[in-house]
Sequence to fold (69 residues):
Amino acid sequence: MVKLKQLSTTQCFELETVEITDDPTLFERYFLSIPVVELDGQVVFQASDMQKPQDIELKLEKIVSQLQT
Fold:
């Protein structure tokens, strides 16, 4: 999340944080997958996609760089 906030200040995208415990449907869908990142309504990655902490940063940087193209 911190990395996304940092990237959103230098790249062209808006970060929206959603608290899934406020929505029973979202909680049921995602509670085992946190963190989940969506882009334009599509899940681009979730916890199960990551093997180690560095995977999060690499994946976020790749997603943000694709926004630029």
